[in-house]
Design brief:
Zn(2+) binds at residues 128, 194, 215. By secondary structure, the chain is α/β, with parallel strands linked by helices. Helices cover 27% and strands 29% of the residues. It has 10 helices and 21 strands. The strands form 4 sheets. Strands 1, 2, 3, 4, 5, 19, 20 and 21 form an 8-stranded mixed beta sheet that branches. Strands 6-9-10-11-12-13-14-15 form an 8-stranded parallel beta sheet. A hairpin with a 2-residue loop joins strand 7 and strand 8.
């Protein structure tokens, strides 16, 4: 069955195309164009967009849960959290796991690998820990943090059966650069994060194959005029994508604008969402640590560190556009950029013919009015 969405403002490939249409068939984008040319096609269903925006489905490469559920807690919790984010436009996601023992992490990536076999909207797992700097641990259990070793890495990669997409590590730890190379050789995107790395140490990690900076500005040294740190190293390296949590709380909107200006086309807007995303304020747990959410801001009960976010990707879009970022650049940061960062560009994060028929309909206020996954409206 062919479905045509028409009378749209298509936001893709860095442009806004007025009076556009997109045709879906068999779960992929069949064709697209402008005006009434779609009427020449045999069409089973039409959707009049009424001049609304249509973007590719959002891709979140770093999030921990939502709807009161965490991705660490098994298949049922994953389904609950994914439903929340899918309704906000996140059609594909990498599921992030907080620091735990190697045994627990191996079991959890195995669960995600099983789910990914039957649910293609799950792109795999992200190991945010345990190879992190104690001094920049954020909401990770200090006693479980450790330097990387080849045996543990191999076990985690094997448990994921090809679905471990990303790992965050502190490259200055003993064995950090060797771990970076080992993960990269296994097809895992390595992110520098939760780190005390200097600019030179971060640059060495990027030369060793790391291609991401985990939630830039958070859980790492800031930019100092005599010590540029990992943020500047990432901004200066065209190979590196910088994750940003655009909730107005983790990073000031003016600093978000600076990041986009200094690394155009290399900012991926992530949620880093914990269980409270799409749920009420209150008391939660993240990786075994008690968290209290007040006015949407999550902090550890002990120590007060920021404990993830309650962000959804559509809200991130609205914040950066309100801050002056052109809509096409903002949409790219939710679609093509994160898809490229984990090696799934072309298939996801695009509405070009042949790509998965994932799309988000947005009204003038950039509120989600419709979501399609594999050509089916949810």
């Amino acid at each position: 069955m062919t479905t045509v969405l028409h009378s749209l403002r298509l936001v893709d490939d860095g442009f806004i195309t007025d009076d556009a249409w997109v045709a879906f068939a068999d779960g992929v984008v069949l064709a697209r164009g402008t005006g009434a040319s779609w009427r020449e096609m045999p069409v089973a269903e039409t959707v009049d967009g009424g001049g609304a925006y249509l973007t590719p489905g959002f891709v979140d490469i770093h999030g921990h849960g939502g709807g009161g559920a965490a991705f660490d807690d098994g298949a049922e919790a994953i389904a609950t959290a994914r439903a929340v984010h899918r309704a906000h436009g996140t059609t594909r996601a990498v599921l992030s796991l907080v620091t735990a023992s190697i045994d627990d992490l191996a079991a959890r990536v195995g669960v995600i690998a099983d789910l990914a076999e039957r649910d293609a909207t799950i792109l795999g797992s992200h190991l945010e820990g345990p190879f992190l700097d104690v001094g920049h641990k954020g909401a990770h259990t200090e006693g479980l943090l450790r330097a990387p070793d080849a045996e543990s890495i191999a076990r985690l990669v094997d448990a994921g059966r090809g679905t471990v997409r990303q790992v965050t590590l502190a490259p200055e730890l003993p064995g950090g650069l060797a771990a970076t190379a080992q993960f990269v050789a296994a097809g895992v995107a390595v992110a520098v994060g939760h780190t005390a790395a200097t600019e030179d140490e971060a640059a060495a990690a990027f030369d060793a194959g790391a291609t991401l900076l985990t939630h830039a500005f958070n859980a790492m040294p800031g930019i100092h005029h005599r010590a540029p740190g990992p943020i500047v190293a990432a901004m200066r390296d065209e190979r590196v994508t910088l994750e940003v949590i655009a909730d107005g709380f983790h990073v000031h909107p003016h600093v978000i604008a600076l990041a986009f200006a200094q690394a155009p086309g290399r900012i991926a807007l992530i949620t880093d969402a914990m269980a409270a995303a799409g749920a009420a304020d209150g008391h939660y747990e993240l990786g075994g640590l008690a968290v209290t959410v007040i006015d949407g801001a999550a902090r550890l009960d002990v120590g007060g560190a920021i404990a993830g976010s309650t962000l959804t990707q559509d809200a991130a879009l609205r914040l950066v556009v309100a801050g002056g970022l052109p809509l096409p650049a903002a949409v790219a940061a939710l679609t093509t950029v994160p898809a490229r960062a984990i090696g799934v560009e072309g298939r996801y994060g695009s509405l070009r013919p042949g790509a998965a028929a994932d799309a988000v309909l947005l009204d003038d206020a950039l509120t989600v009015a419709g979501v399609w996954v594999d050509g089916i409206r949810i």
